[in-house]
Amino acid sequence: MKLPLLLTVFTSLILPTAFSMSPPSPHQQTVKTSDGIRLAYNQTGPPNGQNLLFITGWRQAQVEWRKQAEYFSSIGYRVTTFDLRGHGDSDEPDFGYRISRFAADLNDVLTQLDLKRVTVVGHSMGCSIMWAWFDQYPTSRTSRLSKFVFVDQSASMVADPHWTPAEAAQISAIFSPGAVYDVAFDMAAQLGPLVRSMFTSAVSEADYQWVLSQNKKMSDAHAAALLRDHAFRDWRDVLPRIKGVPTLVLAGAVSIFPPAGIEWIAGQIPGAKKYTFTAAERGSHFMFWENPERFNAVVLEFLRQQH
Description:
The chain has a single domain, classed as 3-Layer(aba) Sandwich (Rossmann fold), CATH 3.40.50. Helices cover 39% and strands 15% of the residues. It is built from 13 helices and eight strands.
């Protein structure tokens, strides 16, 4: 999707929303971060199964991985999902909405749940969190990480004004600097169109409304703060350092991120494999939701490969 078309999706005023620190459900499992925030998590599958950890994107909730959690746990994997701070059923404080803090939260989840030989699957902003964690926690990554799966996130969302259009297109930098602030400022009324743009036209109304309801669990004000931080991160120097970690990079032919920039990431990570979901395969930004059978099969094939 071209930038002007993408930007038509966002056009109203952010309305600050009260944050929630209310207790989670008594049945909800939580991890407490180093700065005192409770993150809701769920684990399914046999305790001795190979560890799989799924990380959501911006404004998404862990239940949106349910088609993966159900499948992989049913075939013997130990699946862990969790809600990022401010998302889903986790605490929503009024601080910490930056990728570096989210990487620290991820490290808290890994260490407190003592996940080892874990394959980490991240979607969209979840990839940025993984890159930040890899960069910031070398000891933890050495002792805990098995494989990476990066799902549809560009290495830099914002194009430097001094780049040529070709340079921006190479890495799927879909925003200008000013556009990010425009999006953050005009978010509230446009959340619905934004979420819809992440799917193909074949998505059912029921599915769209359900995903939208998960997005609305996070306040627009906190989502705007996180978007501003997330969008301006540039991870290109991290990618070549992901050496010795088997990696799969997944793109979508009809995603909001043009696939060329996602495929470019695979070329920067030594030995990385890549797969692009076609339009016929419903290769949207949410291909894992729209075509879970194909998505799960591609990931499973990668998991079973010897490296």
